Each structure stands twice: as structure tokens, then as C-alpha cells.
Amino acid sequence: MHQPAPSAHPRHRTVEAPAGRLHLVEQGTGPLVLLVHGFPESWYSWRRQLPALAAAGYRAVAFDVRGYGRSSKPAATDAYRMLDLVEDNLALVRALGEESAVIVGHDWGSTIAAVSALLHPEVFRAVGLLSVPYAPPGGPRPTDVFARMGGDQEFYVSYFQEPGRAEAEMEPDLRGWLAGFYAAMSADTMPARGEPDPHFVARTGGRLRDRFPRSGLPAWLTQDDLDVYAGEFERTGTTGALNRYRNMDRDWEDLARYGGAPIEQPSLFIGGALDASTTWMADAIEAYPTTLPGLVSSHILDGCGHWIQQERPEEVNHLLTAWLASLRS
What we know:
There is one protein chain. By secondary structure, the protein is α/β, with parallel strands linked by helices. The chain contains 15 helices and ten strands. It has helices at residues 50-55, 82-95, 108-119, 142-149, 156-159, 165-170, 174-184, 223-236, 239-242, 248-254, 276-280, 282-286, 288-291, 308-311, 313-328, and strands at residues 11-17, 20-27, 32-36, 59-63, 101-106, 124-130, 153-155, 200-202, 267-272, 295-301. The strands form two sheets. It has an eight-stranded mixed sheet. Strand 1 and strand 2 form a beta hairpin. Helix 2 crosses helix 3 and helix 7 (174-184) crosses helix 8. The chain is globular and about 55 Å long.
């Protein structure tokens, strides 16, 4: 099949994949760098990275993970298990006419990128992880862990487990919910220490949005940006995105044979000092000499929250391109 030539300008198209179709945006020419977003986002979360990577001599491709944006949205809950998302990534590399790629992910995308690299080192020759550290498969059943985390409150991952429950909170006011969720985890708008933690829900009649800040949008998020995110979810709904959380026990079973396995390829980690993902998983970062023996560089950005490549795009772009350049040497 003839492959369209990559463009110097961002170009949208769709390709066939196990999900049905995947919508992608590509820019630049050179070695392929695949960018995987997290929750609740889209390819648009990489809008500041695509031109920077293209300018540095790479073919940068950001795409909508299955269930998001203009990619297909399978109906079955178990169609969002990690093994299926890895197959989508493999199909995407092939559809782009490539044999290998560097894969970079943020939030859930970090975990998707890590597992892709773990299972298919012959395709994913290096892996960059943003915000969520690599923790090898294994340990206790995830839903059991999350159920114990909240005490008299409910952890948000547990809150997301029941189909329809979180949707009923989010979908009547998607724009407002997204604005609050983004603000809750951004450095300049997150609740102050001592205020109720927005990662938890009151067990009786609680909603996540009850603890969202009311301080307006974070500096990185314009009204136009919010329109893009809200517009995508208004069209697709939120079930596909939430189904990722509803497969964590299936993933635990599927990946049991990889328990404790390290990722050997060259790797990069960038976290935010104010991000709960970084602080809660500090032990995973400390274990990197064992779990990421190919780690090239690891960075914690002071004063940065969860939406790292949007909160600090210039710094993240510099770290990404420096790491990518090291892979060429």
C-alpha cells in the first residue's frame, strides 16, 4: 500500500488498526516518534511537541487512543485492555510504513508506552515516560489496592470502576468537569495542602467535582484549548476513556507472566514535583536502576503538576530532543 509522504506541517489522517481506525496527526520527517496521550485528553495534548520534534529532525505522530477523539470506540468494556492497546500501537507503526519507533507516553499513555516497550522491544526501541513512573507488572490485584487507599473516602480509580457512574457526573457538563479536573492537577490551580484531595470522593453521594478548585483555568489551558477537549468528548462520550480504568484487573491477569520484568531499552522519565503520580510512586522511581536499566536520564520538574508537557512545554521539548539525540549517538 502506498504511504503518503510525511508533511512539514501537521496533517490529520486515519489508519486501520485492531480498534477499527486510529486518528493521527503527524509532522516532520526522520525517525518515528509515537506520542501516546492519557486521561482525559487526546492527540491535542502533544500540540506543543509535534512542531518541536519535527524541527529537530523526527517524524512525530500523536494519535487518539481507542475510545477517544476520532479513533474508533469499541462497545465492549474489555476491548480496552492493555494488550489490545499495545496491538493498536504495533498496527500504527506498520500503517506508517515503519519497522520501529521511539514511543513516548503521558499519564495512561506512559503505562501504555511502557508495556508496549516491554512486550515488543523489537519494535519499540526506546521509551519515554511522562508523569507516571514505570512499575513492573505484578503485586496485589489492583482493585484491592485501590479499595484500601481511601479509608473513609473512595479513591478516584475505584470510583471509575462501575460503568455509568462517573459518566453520570461528567457528561451533563463536560466542559465544566474537564476544566475542574485539569485545574485540580495543575501546579498553579491545584488545591493547597490541607484542603480536600480531589483524587478522593466522599463514599456517600460524593462526586469528584465536589473537590475541584474554583480558581479558574490553569495558565496552560486557554478557552480555545478547553473547547477542543470538550468538543471531542461531547462527540464521543466518556465511556471509552473510562474503560481503560475498568480493565486494570484484566491487565494484571494478562501481564502476570511479566511480573517484575525490567524494560531494557534506552528510557527517559520526566515527572512533576507537585504531581501525585510522582509522589505516590516515589518507590517506583527509586527502583529505576533495577526496573529501567537502560535509563538515560530522569528529571523531576520543580513547581510542575500533572499535565507536564502542557504546563512546561519548552522544558519538556528540550529534554525530549536531547534524549532523542542521545539515541542517535
